[in-house]
Amino acid sequence: MKSPVAPSKLTLRDLASEALAGVLQRPGRAALTALGTVVGVATFVIVLGLTATVGGQISSRFTVLGATEVQVEDTSADPGLDGPAFPEDAAGRVRAIHGVVQAGVYWSAGERTVNSRPLADTAGTDAYPVVAASPGAVTAMHPAVATGRLFDDFHNRSAEPVALLGEAMAKRLGITRLDSHPAVFVAGVPLTVIGILGDAQRHGDLLLSVVVPERTVERLWGPPAQGEPSKMIVETQIGAAQVVASQVAVALRPDAPDRLKVTAPPDPRSLRDSVATDLNSLFLALALTCLGVGMVGIANTTFVAVLERTGEIGLRRSFGARGSHIAAQFLLESAILGTMGGLIGTCVGTLSVVAIAATRHWTAVVEPWTVLPAPLLGTVTGILAGLYPAMRAARIQPVQALQR
Amino acid sequence: MTAVIELDAVSRVYPGPPPVAALHPADLTVEPGQYVAVVGPSGSGKSTFLNLIGLLDVPSTGHYRLDGIDVGDLTENHRAALRGRRIGFVFQAFHLLPHRTALENVMLGMLYQGVPRPERQQRALNALTEVRLDHRLQALPSQMSGGERQRVAIARALVNEPSLLLCDEPTGNLDTATAETVLELFHGLHARGMTLLMVTHNDDVAGRADRVVTIRDGLLEEQR
């Protein structure tokens, strides 16, 4: 049967207006109520922002050196029988791959006596490792030249008798200046020292070796010996190591790519992600705890507000408000407080991440997926916190409310 | 003409324990335009009676018809709607929202009636003019005297053009001079055909009504 009375109405606009007025008319209380959400959401953003920032920092440190180096090694048991692992134009083929900065072949030419004087008798003379390397390999190893220069393609192609020495080794041999074109005698063979290396970022062992152009080594002592396979070092652009590694074997030996063993650095992103995952799960729990505390704060204050505003509830009921109208108003007030807390907390959190990163000279990384939904997190917190008080408010009978 | 209030053996028993018969079965008819005073000592059942008439509470037995509508057949939500449209409340404690201006407090009376905001504003302005407070539209309750607050409450009660004005000790918190001003306002409303039902302790206030109903120990009696 149709009721003779049309139900009461409350438009969404009026509901929003009343809820907003309910919040703004008590600014002090609103600020204190929202404080819990501000702290919770700010912690959430700070924790995730700092985790991403620190992860990025770890990534960038790894990326600078290790993550841009690919090693290729000949796996042949007998290179003399199988022929050279790397073709003549190996460096050119690899440099054609997108993302490659520098590449070159090198191998250990064994330990040989090294002297700064042409002694006939080499007894009692120290032996040092000799490394055969192409100019590209030397460049890819990022040596710092203390004096002189590195050898180049001309030296290599012409099999020039030149060598590079590490700074400590040069001192031991009494070579400190190059203007007189000093020579070292490697297994009795004179080689002109054209450069002294102060540092080698990728291969520190170069500093204790005599580095000789590969063609010179081949001319003097032949190709790589069995058990001393030739290798290639490939320097890539940041982030390209994985892709280059997947292509380099085919580019070098399309006929026998399996002969080459390619070693790529661990993916810095997976390293960063694994670090970030550990930190994320730990700090996310902390952030959620803070949010929980904020939610309890809102729930408590809203509940007290319901008790305090019982007279107002009764008055609204006397004007025809339904229980659902009262509940909706209190729930919306709570949601507004949560959203305000979420917005302020997001700003505070983002600024904190930027400030902390700036003081440590880091690059602040704040992922959009943490910042954009953060205010919404405040809204959800507000709604959850307001549910029970709103239900209680809706159940208050007008006669009870007006007696207070 | 349909009676505004029609009580047919209406009673209210609070279940307790122990059960309390706050209002014994009562019959009463109030015609449109009548001014009825309800008197009785404290604890006699006046508030229970007022709550039933104001649709703030439901009878335990009997039938109550407001403007011919049997409220016993209505759901809680429909009772709320009927209360909002047909009854204007004036309370002893004024019940104004402290953070709202006089105009906003009066507009609140129409909030749940689906009246558009511009119309609410205009009708609130008219109602405040009627109670001679058009110069205090933006005043907060804390900035108004007791008499002014009660006049705002009366404007709020009138703004929906109700069939019945229900007043609970409307002069209880006012000094004699201010109370007189408010009573004159009620007199003017009655003269224009408003139906009034006023609960009061004050014999002088009751003396101005057309009819006086007494409640004593939950029993309702017509005095004159």
From TrEMBL, chain A:
Keyword field contains Cell membrane = yes
Offer an example of a GO molecular function term for this protein: transmembrane transporter activity
Give the CC-aspect GO terms.
plasma membrane
Please give the start and end residues of each transmembrane region. Answer: 30-52, 282-307, 328-357, 369-388
Record's InterPro entries? Answer: ABC3_permease_C, MacB_PCD, Macrolide_Exporter_MacB
Question: Which locations, inside or outside the cell, does it occupy?
Answer: Cell membrane
Give one Pfam family, short name only.
Answer: FtsX
User: What are the residue boundaries of the ABC3 transporter permease C-terminal domain, all occurrences included?
Assistant: 286-398
UniProt entry keywords in alphabetical sequence? Cell membrane, Membrane, Transmembrane, Transmembrane helix
What domain of life? Bacteria
Q: How does it sit in the membrane?
A: Multi-pass membrane protein
Q: Is-annotated flag, keyword Magnesium? A: no
Chief subcellular location: membrane
Domain called MacB-like periplasmic core: residue spans = 31-240
State the family it belongs to: Belongs to the ABC-4 integral membrane protein family.
Question: Could you tell me which PANTHER family the record lists for this protein?
Answer: ABC TRANSPORTER PERMEASE YTRF, MEMBRANE COMPONENT OF TRANSPORTER-RELATED
What protein am I looking at? ABC transporter permease
From TrEMBL, chain B:
Spans through the membrane: none
- Indicate yes or no for the key word Transmembrane helix: no
Listed under GO cellular component are: membrane protein complex; plasma membrane
- The record places domain ABC transporter at 5-224
State the Pfam families in the record: ABC_tran
| Record key words, sorted | ATP-binding, Nucleotide-binding, Transport
- A molecular-function term among this protein's GO annotations: transmembrane transporter activity
What's the protein name?
A: ABC transporter ATP-binding protein
Q: What is the source species?
A: Paractinoplanes tereljensis
